[in-house]
UniProtKB/TrEMBL annotation:
Keyword Transferase attributed: yes
Gene3D superfamilies in alphabetical order: 3.90.1200.10, Phosphorylase Kinase, domain 1 (3.30.200.20)
Protein name: Predicted kinase, aminoglycoside phosphotransferase (APT) family
Superkingdom, taxonomy of origin: Bacteria
Organism from which the protein derives: Aquiflexum balticum DSM 16537
Amino acid sequence: MNKEPKGLENLFPYLETKLKLDPQSTVISQFKGGYSNLTYLIQSPSGQYVLRRPPLGLKISKAHDMVREFRILEALKKAGYKKIPDPIICCEDENVIGAPFFIMEKVEGLILRNRIPEGMDLNEDYFRNLSQNTMDVLLELHHLELEKSGLLELGKPQGYVERQVHGWSERYFQSKTDELSEMETVIDWLKANMPKNENIGFIHNDYKYDNLVLTGPEDPGIKAVLDWEMATVGDPLMDLGTSLAYWAEAKDPDTLKMFNLTYPAGNFSRQQAIDYYASKSNLKLDHILFYYAFGLFKVGVIAQQIYKRYTLGFSQDPRFAGLIHVVRACGKTALKSIKTEKI
């Protein structure tokens, strides 16, 4: 973690007023590894907390709306959903740290990034069980009751697929920096091949291993799901498609292995993940190729947006300089999948 992040000076008196945290014994440090919203650890004698705020620079989409993410966590908690950090306080006053932010419970556990942590031995059985647990929790989310819980109010499911295709296409052109013909060909295909049938469920929209807090290296149980900023009510198969786009296999380009530790032996393949989901859901997966291609395209656009911020000087993180290669790989992989009809 990076110690003593800049721009948080006003946070200490805020924490003292709202949470009774002593500024002299409170330490704030930034978590490394994220590509979008910024996350900080707040440590004090009375406990540990996590703070989330938008990235520095351009305000690109509701994906960076911290107030909305806080409201989603509150709604899920009210609906009885257990696999979330407890939301504690939300601050809409940009004078405190320069942007809205919220504070939540810190859930202790293991978070897997794109490499197995040094000194940790995770075998094939571990990853097989993790793959299954991951799909089970996704299915649980998609099967949440919507009306009585009030979750239905968090989204507009009618026309969701069409809005997503057109919305992410617009975001691509707004953040475009390089000529990548594959991405634009995929846009045309998606617009021409949208499934007519719409499904409705509560969806996470960024569901992958590094957004899961696991019990530990001995047990791949899922304690909590993180990063709810893009959650809404929409088509669960769009959610599955995004997860599949992140579900890298050993044979995939290295650039697509940057975001998910699904490529070591023991993990489900993408097809196994699809088959498992299908066995536990009453949704028809006839058009799963569309959802997978859309997922890849969306991941490419997210990388493009971050890369654009980097080119404009809003971030000096050296990892962002190579994200244009991720965009290119997403476009090529999606187009290849469309042409071969293989996932």
